[in-house]
Design the sequence.
């Protein structure tokens, strides 16, 4: 019998049909993400390494959100204004020990995934605000391209340190370039301005022997072929406003889909009943489970902050996964 790690990699990386449907929320050790204070500010809120102010929240499931006066108001002046975090000042080994204490370190049984939040597009929005960032991409694409290149250079340095200290199987780059209705920009703008930098980061991850995933919430199905083209092993966290079944049918031999749970609907709310949770997990397993290249992922937005609240939200989801994961 396969270990959970072997079963997960069979679906997510080899794009084959696993023995059972893997579960991102139980089969993976998730490092990075909110623990990168240089990216998201310190716990409780404050400045990140770019000078952006972050605020701690409960309404966003404990996740920090950027706010305050934009750091950058003129994209053409970015070279004189934007500063990058000093990654050598970060306590890498201390952070690894702390996160391993919270999330575990059984690398033989579970996949080690490192989440790199705030990708190229998101960092631009954090520096400028969404409206100004989108206007800058339209009005000053050359300056945006240059800043995206510098952000990618910084991310590649981050990959080097993550590879050295965390030694993950997977690095997931987070770049939410879509809403629930569609992309923030045209597919053409994505392809000309953002895609080359996504590819260069993917290439750097693979150069360290690590598997690149990309996280994009919202309806981004138009650019799944682009994610395939730049060598992304899996797309996460796929939401059902996309044609997930169609994507698995057409691209499942080239890219895995991680997600499926209706995090945007009733099943993703704190007040969701066990019956609603059970029904949506069953829908995912029956609809997407028969395909290879599918990994279940589901969570709920809880009002409290911290790992304890997060775990409280996913426990009934994981219980339902155990019930239905062998459906073929």
Sequence:
């Amino acid at each position: 019998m396969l270990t959970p790690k072997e079963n997960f990699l069979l679906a997510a990386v080899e794009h084959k049909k696993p023995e059972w449907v893997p579960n991102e929320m139980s089969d993976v050790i998730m490092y990075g993400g909110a623990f990168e204070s240089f990216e998201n500010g310190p716990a409780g809120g404050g400045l990140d390494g770019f000078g952006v102010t972050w605020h701690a929240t409960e309404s966003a499931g404990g996740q920090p959100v950027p706010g305050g006066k934009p750091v950058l108001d003129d994209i053409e002046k970015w070279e004189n204004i934007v500063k990058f975090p000093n990654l050598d000042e970060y306590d890498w080994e201390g952070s690894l020990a702390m996160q391993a204490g919270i999330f575990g370190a059984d690398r033989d049984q579970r996949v080690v995934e490192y989440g790199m939040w705030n990708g190229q597009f998101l960092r631009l929005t954090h520096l400028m605000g969404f409206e100004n960032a989108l206007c800058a991409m339209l009005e000053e694409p050359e300056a945006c391209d240059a800043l995206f290149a510098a952000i990618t250079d910084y991310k590649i340095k981050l990959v080097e340190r993550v590879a050295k200290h965390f030694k993950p199987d997977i690095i997931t780059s987070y770049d939410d370039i879509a809403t629930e209705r569609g992309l923030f920009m045209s597919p053409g703008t994505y392809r000309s301005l953002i895609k080359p930098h996504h590819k260069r980061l993917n290439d750097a991850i693979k150069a360290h022997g690590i598997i690149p995933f990309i996280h994009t919430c919202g309806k981004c199905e138009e650019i799944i072929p682009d994610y395939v083209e730049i060598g992304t092993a899996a797309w996460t966290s796929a939401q059902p406003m996309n044609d997930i079944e169609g994507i698995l049918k057409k691209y499942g031999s080239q890219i895995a889909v991680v997600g499926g749970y209706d995090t945007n609907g009733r099943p993703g709310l704190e007040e969701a009943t066990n019956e609603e949770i059970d029904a949506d997990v069953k829908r995912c397993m029956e609809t997407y489970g028969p395909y290879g290249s599918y990994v279940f992922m589901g969570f709920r937005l809880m009002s409290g902050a911290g790992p304890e609240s997060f775990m409280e939200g996913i426990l009934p989801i994981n219980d339902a996964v155990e019930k239905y994961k062998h459906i073929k």
The chain has a mean pLDDT of 95. The chain has one domain: 4-324. The two ends are 17 Å apart (CA to CA).
